[in-house]
Amino acid sequence: MVVFGTPKRTSAISLARYAEIINYTDYAFFGFSDPGNDNYACREIWTQPQRDNIQFHLSEAQSEIEKVIGYPLMPKWFAGEVHPFGCNILTKKTNVIALGIKATDDVDLASVVNLVPDPATVTIATALTSTDGIKVYYPDTEIEISPSDMEFSAGSLVISIPKGRLMKYELRDNPVTGRLSSTGSNYQTTVDVKRHYNDASAQIVAVWPHGCNLTCSSTGCSRYTEAACGTIVDAEIGEISFQFATYSAGSWTTTRRICCRGNPKKLEISYQAGTEELESIAEMAIIRLAHSKMPSAPCGCDVIH
To answer: Residue 108 sits in which domain range?
Structure first.
């Protein structure tokens, strides 16, 4: 089974959200020295190793909680999960959202950031009408930048990003004194904007160990497969039923099984599962567990224990 996602440790709680929860200004948390930092009780400037450390422990804490509850605390795709043949299948992860695989489109690459206002803005002409699945990244990386708002205006997607979250990529490893917020060259000037969504064209693959004639195929000993689509019978427990079908022009058409030699040996199921919106009680559980696992208290004032 393949779990799709960035190899960099991530959490359902972004670093920007974490800073907000512990009452930290974006500037101080992401490494800027800014006069506004003095307005916060928590004003000590974080460094990149400290941010990496809390990111690691947030991810680790979330993973431990997910092992207990049986589903991801953020939407996640699972591809090619293997199950013995059966009319109804229970996926390994519960809280199933959709059947299909993860797909990614480039909305705009190296999009220019307007740093004059704060929050800064990114404006992209697009035919999209929904912000679902839209993510902002440092160019050519999988490192996310968290926007504060996204909206459509006059045929364009307008993304707002607090300037404190836009440390220039090459300068993210800031000194303990921080980098001056008043220096324009300290800010990231371009970002990649991408959209992640569910591709329903690949849901279930039925697998036989050989071709339909009970022998090896003409290209050698290889498995024989047929496509199938599924129906979510009970999302909460991950119950799926399936039918043999073909996908074309955005829809499935059921078919009779072509292979004449009995039921398939196994089914390979691809699906998305998890929590689509993290509740505050879950956020606090992740943060408290993360803090308990850290060798020393997080930087700054008295944060959540």
So the answer is: 103-197
